[in-house]
Design goal:
220 residues, alpha/beta, Zincin-like, 3-stranded mixed beta sheet, 5 helices, 23% strand, globular
């Protein structure tokens, strides 16, 4: 067993195959189907070791980026300074400051709730403008906390967006809104779809590339 690469094992009744997950903060986890032999975990680690090590390096980069923020959080390309206040339970924005709970145990969850509320306020009018320009409509708008998706649009016109987009530069958020809004007209990723996106967001490829490279840093 590669004992120099720590990992934890979790058995799952829902798992149908062995899966290896690498989280920037929680480390490496091997998910085993309930009846898999114990040896399946170290075998998976050995097989995927180069991929795991690459993800761990990326995870360290993410942690370094978050640590470098200090007492600030990103907001659409700018920064908001965190100002802890004793007795506070709800986050309030005051100019370029966020007044947050003084208790660190409450602050993180409260800040995320504030971002979720702010995401709806930022995203809803953008969606309305994009949909109006496209001459179409949507059925619902939700703000979510997906692990890997920045937005989605169902065939029924239900749209959802990841609140973490507020941690990205504003043009990146605008691109994702246009991307999903264009799916109301073209549901696939054909050349016709990208032509439609490009007609409304000419530099979409730059923002798409930004998300691929830096999307993992969009955490608090």
């Amino acid at each position: 067993m590669p004992d120099d690469l720590p990992y934890r094992v979790r058995r799952s009744d829902r798992a149908r195959r062995v899966r290896v997950r690498v989280d920037p903060h929680r480390g490496v986890e091997v998910v085993l189907p309930r009846r898999s032999p114990a040896g399946a975990a170290p075998a998976a680690i050995a097989e995927l070791r180069p991929w795991i090590e690459a993800r761990l390096i990326e995870g360290q980069v993410v942690r370094d980026v978050v640590a470098a923020r200090g007492a600030h959080v990103p907001y659409l390309g700018g920064e908001l300074a965190l100002r802890p206040q004793a007795g506070r339970t709800r986050v309030h924005r005051r100019g370029d400051e966020l007044l947050v709970p003084g208790d660190p145990g409450l602050a993180a969850a409260a800040i995320e709730r504030w971002y979720r509320r702010a995401a709806r306020d930022e995203i809803a009018p953008r969606v309305d403008r994009a949909v109006g320009a496209l001459g179409t409509s949507y059925s619902a708008l939700t703000i979510r906390n997906q692990r890997t998706r920045w937005g989605s649009c169902s065939a029924a016109g239900a749209m959802s967006f990841n609140w973490r987009l507020l941690l990205a530069p504003e043009p990146v958020l605008d691109y994702v809104v246009w991307h999903e809004a264009c799916h109301l007209r073209v549901m696939d990723h054909s050349a016709r779809f990208w032509e439609l996106v490009g007609s409304h967001c000419p530099d979409y490829s730059e923002h798409r590339r930004w998300l691929r490279v830096k999307g993992s840093t969009l955490i608090l």
